[in-house]
Design a protein that fits this description.
heterodimer, A: alpha+beta, D-Maltodextrin-Binding Protein, domain 2, 2 domains, 8-stranded mixed sheet, two-stranded parallel ribbon, 10 strands, B: mainly alpha, MetI-like fold, two-stranded antiparallel sheet, 12 helices, about 65% helix, ABC transporter permease subunit (chain B)
Chain lengths: ~375, ~300
């Protein structure tokens, strides 16, 4: 038995400890603790624009392990293989990954960065839709950082100042349940056929969902539109709606399995994932990239300028753009940005690459201004065309 | 409703003493309400202030300077944004009206039936169903009466022109939780309709229709209106069910706010979303402004 005074002392100590811990949470990261500490590093991890700035990869790994954790946001485990990527990173570097709100949107990520400025819980790295990568860079939210593979990323897919660069993406594709649909459509023109009445769905509302937006853009390209002119795509879906072919229900794994969205326009990596997921469940999911409307879109990675774990954030980027990380994306049916380079130098996972839907030619991307114009047109005209 | 507590009336409000709920209290009794006021100020006042501030200001992304602007509010009342506000009001008013009428009829049947078992079963079921919403509800409907839903296939509903993913479909889905909600809120009021009043009316030779016209409905009016307002508000604020069912093809203001606030496509629309939120608050306020005075006027009968 403790005497009462001893007990009181223990209580005081305990509450002091609790208070210290509480005030430590949410406090700004201790900048001094971020250095590699061995004297070799030239700059703080938070200011490093490449691994070389810190004295090479080994120094970066050491600094990241000293931080011991990484905050990520909006990385669903079943999306582009992120579940496996996080596990592989944790196992390789012994760094704990805190995955917050996996289903968050790009807008939520930017909001988290802004609202938790200087806090320990702020996301370290972001996986963003291209529009948000551009607007976030304009708002000066990202730290410029060049990964080792920087030079291999195509010029059209990276920010000149290295504040963001594309990592993986895919093509707009038409998924189709061959068990229910006798002739699967392979072009946008096909979708207008009367036999697909009440069968064609998008993955959400194009003013909100990136893949649905890509679907409208691709439909525009298929109907004499261009990156600067998305209107034909909106008209196309208006026509689909009038003919009764289009159903506005948002296609999800559940609606695909249930057969409610037997034809779903979505990213090819998601559609390819469904094909694997529902094999043997009465769903024979076929994926075709429509030949008349080819549109690819990539997601971008960026480092939070005020990342609480700056070294771990940079190590994560290095990992994603290493052959190992890129092959993991391929394993999730996503097109890794370094795929062409890796195909040449032989580091690609050939089995995974062979499973991707076939594509001819190289993808083209709309310029910032064209993208802005397309979004403005869509926000203005979509409701009217569809109702 | 709380029982009326006899307290001192410095100013004699003869005749109206039971109607007026405002009472002169001792100098320090307001302290008891302080926690409530603080809670209200914190949990409603601060968000409201933040919404209003965001709706009328713009922050330049590069310089960080904030300035006043009416641009967001103006945009929220134009084009597709205005269309979504109108769509939401139409859907909410229609579903609240249908839900209110059907809810009252069901509640009346339950209240007047002698079966205690039916009564408790109906009220319990209403309590559960009134809270069944969101994506699970949407998916339950998709699986049952969607295009490849079980019932749709069996009864060939599509042949009759049925389409779940439309304004009509959404109305039916909303009624699924609005009718039970109306049953829940109106049943106590129907209980308060004393049998003696009806007997008195009958003794004076009134028909059933006359009883309802001159006694029943006037007494019930505030509760009916209150139920309507509650249903309207519930439908007006609903989001997840509609998002899963109709996406963008039935324009609704909650969907527009979600698109602008947390999408993957539109950037820099946050302030328009806040302006839309402010519009919603104003509409809800207008509806309450109609309801409150009427409610106060005739609440005296039901206690």
């Amino acid at each position: 038995m403790l005497s009462s005074s001893a007990r009181r002392g223990a209580a005081v100590l305990l509450s002091a400890a609790v208070l210290t811990t509480l005030s430590a949470c949410g406090a700004a990261p201790d900048k001094a603790a971020g250095t590699a500490g061995d004297g070799k590093s030239k700059v703080q991890p938070g200011a490093a624009a490449s691994a070389a700035d810190l004295g090479g990869m080994d120094a970066l790994v050491a600094a990241a392990q000293k931080e011991g954790k990484l905050n990520v946001i909006a990385l669903p485990p079943d999306w582009a293989n992120y579940g496996a990527i996080i596990k592989a990173f944790e196992a390789k570097y012994k760094i704990k990954v805190n995955s917050e709100n996996p289903d968050a949107s790009s807008a939520d990520e930017i909001a988290a960065v802004k609202s938790r400025k200087g806090q320990d819980r702020a996301p370290d790295v972001m996986d963003l839709g291209i529009a948000f990568a551009r607007s976030g860079a304009a708002e000066n939210l990202f730290a410029p950082y060049k990964v080792t593979a920087w030079d291999k990323i195509p010029a059209g897919q990276k920010d000149a100042d290295a504040r963001w660069y594309n990592d993986y993406g895919g093509y707009v594709s038409i998924g189709c349940d061959a068990a229910k649909i006798p002739n699967c459509p392979t072009t946008f023109a096909d979708l207008l056929k009367p036999e697909y009445k009440g069968k064609v769905a998008l993955n959400g509302n194009p003013t909100k969902s990136g893949s649905a937006f890509g679907g409208v853009y691709a439909a525009a390209l298929a109907n004499k539109g261009s990156f600067a002119d998305i209107q034909p795509g909106i008209d196309f879906f208006g026509q689909l709606r009038k003919s009764g072919n289009f159903i506005p229900v948002e296609s999800t794994p559940a609606t695909v399995e249930k057969g409610e969205t037997p034809i779903s326009i979505d990213w090819d990596y998601l559609n390819a994932g469904y094909a694997e997921q529902f094999k043997g469940k009465g769903v024979d999911w076929k994926v075709a990239v429509p030949t008349d409307g080819v549109y690819a879109q990539y997601y971008s990675q960026a480092v939070n300028k005020e990342a609480p774990n700056p070294a771990a954030a940079r190590l994560w980027m290095e990992f994603l753009y290493s052959a190992e990380g890129q092959n993991l994306y391929l394993g999730g049916h996503a097109r890794a940005v370094l795929l062409p380079v890796m195909t040449q130098d032989g580091t690609v996972d050939k089995d995974a690459a062979a499973k991707l839907p076939q594509i001819q030619g190289t993808p083209a991307f709309p310029a910032s201004a064209e993208l802005d114009k397309a979004k403005a047109t869509l926000a203005e005209k979509w409701d009217k065309a569809l109702s | 409703m709380s029982p009326s507590t006899p307290t001192s009336h410095p100013e004699g409000t003869a005749g109206g003493s039971t109607t007026s709920r405002r009472r002169r209290r001792g100098p320090r009794t307001w302290l008891a309400a302080l926690p409530l006021l603080a809670f209200t100020g914190l949990c409603f006042g601060i968000p409201l202030g933040a919404i209003a501030f965001g709706a009328v200001t713009r922050t330049d992304p590069s310089t960080g300077a904030t300035q006043l602007t009416g641009e967001h509010l103006a945009r929220s009342l134009q084009g597709p944004y205005l269309g979504s506000l109108i769509g939401s009001v139409q859907l909410s008013a229609l579903t609240a009206l249908i839900g209110g009428v059907l809810g009252v009829l069901i509640a009346q049947a339950v209240v007047t039936s002698r079966s205690q078992a039916l009564r408790s079963a109906a009220l319990t079921a209403s309590g559960v169903l009134a809270n069944f919403g969101g994506v699970p509800l949407a998916f339950a409907f998709i699986a049952t009466v969607g295009i490849s839903g079980v019932v749709t296939q069996l009864a060939d509903l599509t042949g009759f022109g049925w389409n779940l993913y439309s304004f009509t479909g959404l109305t039916v889905v909303y009624l699924y939780f609005l009718i039970p909600l109306m049953v829940l809120v109106i049943a106590p009021a129907l209980d308060g309709l004393r049998p003696q009043w009806r007997e008195a009316a009958q003794n004076n030779g009134a028909t059933g229709r006359q009883f309802w016209r001159h006694v029943g409905l006037p007494v019930l009016a505030p509760s009916l209106l209150g139920g309507f307002v509650l249903l309207f508000g519930t439908a007006f604020a609903a989001h997840a069910t509609a998002a899963a069912l109709v996406g963008g093809s039935v324009p609704l203001v909650t969907l527009k706010i979600a698109d602008a606030l947390s999408g993957n496509v539109l950037t820099g629309q946050e302030n328009v979303a806040l302006a839309l939120g402010l519009d919603m608050i104003l509409i809800a306020g207008l509806v309450m402004a109609v309801y409150l005075p009427l409610q106060r006027r005739s609440a005296r009968w039901l206690r």
